[in-house]
Amino acid sequence: FSGPFTDVVTTNLKLRNPSDRKVCFKVKTTAPRRYCVRPNSGIIDPGSSVIVSVMLQPFDYDPNEKSKHKFMVQTTYAPPNISDMEAVWKEAKPDELMDSKLRCVFEMPNENDKLNDIDASKSAPVLNTSKQDGPMPKPHSVSLNDTETRKLVEECKRLQAEIMKLTDENRHLRDEGLRLRKVAHSDKSGSPTALALRDNGSNSLPSLLVVIAAIFIGFFLGKFIL
């Protein structure tokens, strides 16, 4: 019997007569007040079968309590002329009776089965609510992203201006170096002053470029990493 047991639970019992004679049957239970059996007795023709409905009455189910209810299906061959069924059972000898015992088992449906039984119309509002609640923090996060983007754009523009400024300074220094080299080449006297100017002009240009490049790279990386 499958719960819940708040209403009548019905289980069908199929009895089949495999013999070539008529068989009388009777269904008994150890808890007659808890069950309603229809039909509880009758005759089964040879090779035929009959369905017996066993109806369990509502009760308070306790999963920790083991069921002690049992059923017994008692059968005997029917006499040639049957006029009184009660007389057949009273007059039957013990060695002519056959019986089959069945134990009752109570089961509650699984949680998955309960979830499958939920109405789809009831679950729809829950899904709609989750969809409405989910995107709520999005406007705040979008505004933050826009602010960060604007800051990065402004920072890029400022860095581009710095790059252009450093490029102009580099070009100016390069022109100055070329001018000093021309002066050095044009000085035919070979005086120590001309040689000093030539050496200072050629050595100062790479050192200054290295320092400017290091400052620019450190500033650029520091801004974007921090």
TrEMBL record:
It comes from the Eukaryota. It is found in: Cell junction, Tight junction; Cell membrane; Endoplasmic reticulum membrane. GO terms for molecular function: FFAT motif binding. One of its GO terms (cellular component) is bicellular tight junction. Residues 1-107 form the MSP domain. It is a single-pass type IV membrane protein. Keywords: Acetylation, Cell junction, Cell membrane, Coiled coil, Disulfide bond, Endoplasmic reticulum, Membrane, Phosphoprotein, Tight junction, Transmembrane, Transmembrane helix. The chain crosses the membrane at residues 205-225. Residues 149-176 form a coiled coil. The keyword Transmembrane applies. Residues 114-143 are annotated as: Disordered. PANTHER family: VESICLE-ASSOCIATED MEMBRANE PROTEIN-ASSOCIATED PROTEIN, VESICLE-ASSOCIATED MEMBRANE PROTEIN-ASSOCIATED PROTEIN A. Belongs to the VAMP-associated protein (VAP) (TC 9.B.17) family. This is Vesicle-associated membrane protein-associated protein A.
